[in-house]
Amino acid sequence: GEEGGETMTMATPLLTTRVNATSFSCAQLPTRIARKAATQGKGKQLALQERAKLGRLEPPKALDASICLSVAQEEVAFAALLAAETYLSAKKKKELTGEDTNLFHPSIVVGVIVVSSGLVSSRNELLGKVGLLFTSIAAFAVIGKYAKRFLEAEVGTTEEFPGPKALPAFCIFASLMAFLASTQALTKV
User: Fold this and answer.
1) What residues pair up with 11 in beta bridges, in sequence order?
2) In 3-state terms, what secondary structure has residue 25?
3) What is the pTM of this model?
4) d(CA 179, CA 28)
5) pLDDT per residue over 47-61, tens digit each?
6) Which of 115, 117, 133 is nearest to 74 (CA)?
């Protein structure tokens, strides 16, 4: 029944109903419309369809906290490794050749990975998946960069340890681990 207050008429695609604007909250509206449809002889199926149409807005789902925490930590560690390796390689190159290294592209990759880690840490379903996807793409691009450096490195002598190919090989491995962690987490969420 209507308990005082203003009465208004609401038109929906399937029915028209009168609702008392002050007797219930907005969250109860889909239930009331569905009940009204059932009592107007439209049947239970029509009521369920109407409730489904009106109740589509659900709160975002949260991702598993343990997955988000572990992957976010791995991403931050990977970004720190990339930043340190880039800095040390640029410093060594400057000492040997006197050339400055362009740090723009590595900075973007490290930034994308750190931001993606933040998205994953949010535990929001959509943002977490976007973060995992961007980290996977960035890690895959880094694999290509280090593979190119590995192939272009000259062969060292046996007295040179660890040799010029060791660091790119290790970074390929680290990038592969970051790529696999992100893609596996993406399939689990």
Assistant:
1) 16
2) coil
3) 0.64
4) 45
5) 566 666 655 555 556
6) 117
